[in-house]
Amino acid sequence: MVRKKDQFWEYVEALDGRFICKFCERNFAGGVPRIKSHLLGITGRDIDICTKVPEDIQAKVFLAGGGSNKKAKNKETTSNAQEHGNATNLPRGLQQSTVPGIFNKKDKDEVDKKLDKFFVLNNISFNLIQTPSFKEFLTNAIEYGKSYKIPSYSTLRAKLIPDSKKEVDEYVAVVKKSWGIDGMHIDV
User: Is the pTM of this model over 0.85?
Assistant: First the structure.
């Protein structure tokens, strides 16, 4: 049921029991609580977070009552306070985008320095940063989120590397079968 007094409907196009976000154009079922969660970046309502909402709109939604979802707000506040040693009522997405200095947000320069240090101290070729596999790994790790934990040495050595070797061996077997009965021919 759409209540006209809820100002959050101005950020979406209301359909019959659904809405389309005016910023990211995603189509969702639900009402005002899901719109607030979508715009504020609060997880837990089985809805994607809007990545295109302007910071001023996100702040406006929060100040107009977007933080009233106590379960989601408390979850975000508790985890954030534990991570950063502060207690705040702002949802995590709003903290990072609107007041980065206050909430210990690591800026891009600091992250870049950590990457530089990793390459230099481990004597890794700088060309690695241009490889599709490195970019794919970083993208997937970022999409997975903060809960991603790097596999242990044992897991890498005993499970992941042998699994990759098995895949390569299977591919090589397929290629060898394609050589035919006469053997491999190299045409120059």
Answer: no
